[in-house]
Amino acid sequence: MSPITAQSNLRTRLAQGVAWNLIGVVFNQGSTFLVSILLAHVLGLKTFGEYAMVQATVAAAALLAQVATGYTATKYVAEFRSADSGRAGRVLALLGLTAVGTATLTAAILLSGSGWLARDLLRQPVLAPALAVGAGGVFFSAISGFLMGALAGLEAYRTLGLAGIASGIIYVVTCIAGAEYAGLTGAVAGVALSGFAQSAVLWQAVRVEARRRGIPIRLEGIGTETGIILRFAIPAALNGFIAMPAVWASNAFLARQDGGYALLALFSAANSFRIIVLFLPNIVNNVSMSLLNNQRGLRDERRYRRVFWVNLAVMLGIVAVSSTGIAILGHWLLLWFGSGFGAAYPVLLVLMAVTIPESASTALFQVTQSRERIWASVGTVAIPCYGTLALTAWWLTPTHGALGLAWAHLAGWTVALIANCALVSKLGVRVSGTTPAEARA
To answer: Where does residue 286 fall: left (phi above 0), alpha (psi -120 to 50 degrees), or beta otherwise?
Structure first.
């Protein structure tokens, strides 16, 4: 497709990308929500809280293991696929190799350290087997994250949607079957098994889509692309290295209180609805990221600005409507998890407020990533945001429990929004500077 043709159907590409991404995320996030409800009934309040802690650990480790390879793939594959298909292929090969290496290392660390983590940090030695099994989930989740980022960069949203349908169904079946058969450890094993199936489907999809677009995925010459790792992947990964440990530590502060795992179960139930509110805005944001970087690669400033502002407005509009609706119906919705979960309603209200600064910050970050100013974001946004989250959680959870953790999230994202506004104001919403492709010309 020529650049002119690609520009003429920008709105269609955005709409189709959002539609197919929505289908995939409905099955992915919907299956996660459904599994949470079913597991709350199968495992009971305390064990469900333990499951939430194990899953938080697995999610944190998987994000660290990915080293932002999926995010980096989305940016650079989108930017280079039209102008330099050979370079897009080298980027995919380099990032794929990186993802496999870091996923293997992180999974091995969690496997070997599961006993110490459960005994000394979580003060719950019985979680050690589940954490060890979760190492498999870490590996496959990290690989899947890279592959989904690659498909997003290729704008293969139909393929992503179909893969999401398959993986969502597998996740529900394996996780619930595992919980019925072997309790907590069985549920975590089901997560790992579904991750294996998802990564296998996604890998085949990436191969097919790259071949269809004439992008050769080869290891030859990947050394010339290592600058991408240094200037983008590493600082983007640092954002994750700061974020996930802070979120994990905040959950751990709550879990270490008297009756902490029951409190964590209440927070996790309420937080499920925060994730639901954000899932459609995040879909729009993910599609916009690919389009935004594609406009940068083509040096189309007018459409670059249009994509940014439309993305910000749509995200805030969706969040405002959906968070208000869930806040009104929240007490009844929480009872889906069980009769004891109605106590989480005040937590739910605070978490609905969190979605406003969180979604706005995510949209503003598009300018930062497209301009390759990730290093600046680490110091001015990520550290203040997640430092505030962790410190506020440490301060409030002993006296306010799950509600204190919710307030900590609101404090952290408010700081992030202020910092992102300041950074984007400085950078400006425009295409400027020399792109990497031009620098190599």
So the answer is: alpha
